[in-house]
Each structure stands twice: as structure tokens, then as C-alpha cells.
Specification:
Immunoglobulin-like; 9 helices; 10 strands; binds copper (II) ion
Length: 330
């Protein structure tokens, strides 16, 4: 081997080891390649990543030891060297050893895992803020009972991207109209339920995943370590549109959160004022257009129907009695 070849080989081996050790110690280094868990943003998510890395290392060590021993035995005791197969049966010592070692390894993994699980389930210690999360087909509703704020959060990815008529954006199917906003560094208690079918509220970077079951109120909690946008999805499998009800959590500083709550309240008051209002025809037309835009998102701008969503134009609802039409819209 020539000197430049040798230098290149040594360089490649050094890079490989540097990459491997970096991958083992730092989840972030390997997160950039999209293979590892997402960078944690809450104490629980940090613990989950730590456990994941620790157990991966244990698996790697077992892999190397077991296969190393196996290949060494096959090679060193091969028939061509004159070795003969042993014919013994039942060795009490071996049976005890190969039961005890895996048992101890499992206990070693179970102790830290259980500690983390208990922390995840501990919703008893006082929370700074409570948010009720309700799953609907196919959106989320968030309620802040202490602040009198509630709203729906729906997918905001344009229909054209879903139907491959437009280029898919960076946050394809992971973007919503109204994100759920939480203050940084505060313990947020989430009460999770559903209104129709089972859903699952999952935000990996906050280390939260909880089933949302109609008639049950599940609890979970999170503390966001730093401001940021954390994206998740409904993690329920059965049902056609769980993949179209993403979750976006905005973690902001306390003063921004207070501002946001104020703005939400002002909006709610404006909406309440609309109820007793005498509407002019022009106002009604403008309001109607806004409402209709929501129908158009699925049924098409001209009511022509899109994919599984039926045509509105000429349908019984559109041409039948006005009372039935109002009932379905409401
Ligand atoms: Cu769902």
C-alpha cells in the first residue's frame, strides 16, 4: 500500500470512529441526519432520549459479544483443525449463567425506565396551567379553563399540495391554523379526551403521547425548556384521516403568553358581540362568504366536489328547503 493510500485509509477509519462515538454520545449530532429521535425540548423528552441511547449501547455491546464469541468459536474450533463436536447435555452452570445474565441486564434497563415512566405519569404535583385537549374527526380543540379561552386547530396545508398539484411545503401535513400556545418553563397539565373516535395526542419533542378516548379523561404533562415550535401528529391508526390532524405547540415566554391570552379573549368578545348584533345585508354577505370559504376547502370553490367530498351545486341540500340547509351548516 502506498503512503497516500495508507493516509487516506487511516483518515477514513478515524472519521468512521469519530462519527460513531459522536452518534453514541450526542443525539443532536445524528438528529441532523433524520435517523434519531427529534431534539428533546422538555425534561421528560431528554430522559427518553437518554434511555434510548443507553439501551442502544447495551444492544450494541450484546451484539458484538455474542456474535464475536460465536464467530471466534466457529473459526477456532473448526473440523479441519481436528476438533470434534462435544456431545454433552445439560450443564447446570451454563443454564444458570445464561438465565442470570439476561435477567440482570433486563433489571438494569428496567430500573431507569420505570423511574422515567413514573415521572411521566406523575400529574399530581401542582401544574401552572391546565389545557383540555379534545380530538374530533379530524381536528383538535384546545380549552384553557383558567383563562376562558378555547378554539379549534385544523390542518392548514393547502389542498393542492395534498393532491400533488403544488410543491409540498417544509411542514407538509404538520401545520395548523391555530397552534396551541404554552408558556416556557411552566408545568402544563394536559387533560386529553375525544368527542367521536379514539385519537392520540403526540408531540415527540415534549415527550408527550396520550390516547384521547371518548368518555375518558386522560392526563399528561410537559414543561417546555425553551421557546420554539414543536410539531406532532394524531398517532391513532384506525380511521382514514388521523394523518390529517396535526398538532403544533408554540412555546413562548410568559409575557408573550399573557399577550396571546389577551388577544384570544378580545377575539372571543368580538364574536360574542356578533350574536346580538343587527346585521346589514352587506355585512351578512361578507360573513356568508367567509363561512362558505370553509365549505369550499373540501367541496371546491364552485361547489363542484373534490375527491371523496360530494358536489354541493344542484344537491338536495343546496336546492331544498332553506331550514334544512341552515341546519346542516350550523
Ligand atoms: Cu385522530
Amino acid at each position: 500500500m502506498s503512503t497516500p493510500q495508507r493516509t487516506r485509509l487511516i483518515g477514513a477509519v478515524r472519521n468512521l470512529f469519530a462519527g460513531l462515538s459522536l452518534a453514541l454520545v450526542s443525539g443532536l449530532a445524528y438528529g441532523a441526519y433524520g435517523l434519531n429521535l427529534q431534539p428533546p425540548a422538555s425534561p421528560i423528552a431528554e430522559e427518553i432520549l437518554g434511555l434510548h441511547n443507553m439501551i442502544m449501547v447495551i444492544c450494541l455491546i450484546i451484539f458484538v459479544v455474542v456474535f464475536g464469541f460465536m464467530f471466534y468459536s466457529i473459526f477456532a474450533h473448526r473440523k479441519s483443525r481436528g476438533h470434534k463436536a462435544a456431545t454433552f447435555h445439560e450443564s447446570t452452570t451454563i443454564e444458570i449463567v445464561w438465565t442470570a445474565i439476561p435477567f440482570l441486564i433486563l433489571v438494569g434497563m428496567a430500573i431507569p425506565s420505570t423511574a422515567t415512566l413514573l415521572k411521566m405519569e406523575d400529574t399530581k404535583s401542582q401544574a401552572d396551567i391546565v389545557i383540555k385537549v379534545t380530538g374530533y374527526q379530524w381536528k383538535w380543540r384546545y380549552e384553557y379553563p383558567d383563562h376562558d379561552v378555547s378554539f379549534f386547530s385544523t390542518l392548514s396545508t393547502p389542498r393542492d399540495q395534498i393532491e400533488n398539484k403544488a410543491k409540498k411545503g417544509d411542514n407538509y401535513l404538520l401545520e395548523v391554523d391555530n397552534p396551541v400556545v404554552i408558556p416556557v418553563g411552566k408545568k402544563v397539565r394536559f387533560l386529553v379526551t375525544a368527542n367521536d373516535v379514539i385519537h392520540a395526542w403526540w408531540v415527540p419533542q415534549l415527550g408527550v403521547k396520550k390516547d384521547a378516548i371518548p368518555g375518558f379523561l386522560n392526563e399528561t404533562w410537559a414543561i417546555a425548556n425553551k421557546p420554539g415550535t414543536y410539531r406532532g401528529q394524531c398517532a391513532e391508526l384506525c380511521g382514514k384521516d388521523h394523518g390529517y390532524m396535526p398538532i403544533v405547540v408554540e412555546a413562548v415566554e410568559q409575557d408573550k403568553f399573557t399577550q396571546w391570552v389577551g388577544a384570544q379573549k378580545a377575539q372571543a368578545q368580538a364574536a360574542a358581540a356578533d350574536v346580538g348584533k343587527q346585521w346589514t345585508k352587506a355585512e351578512l354577505l361578507a360573513k356568508g362568504e367567509k363561512v362558505y370559504a370553509q365549505c369550499a376547502a373540501c367541496h371546491g370553490a364552485k361547489g363542484e366536489g373534490v375527491a371523496t367530498f360530494p358536489k354541493l351545486t344542484g344537491s338536495k341540500i343546496a336546492t331544498g328547503p332553506v331550514a334544512d340547509h341552515i341546519k346542516i351548516v350550523l
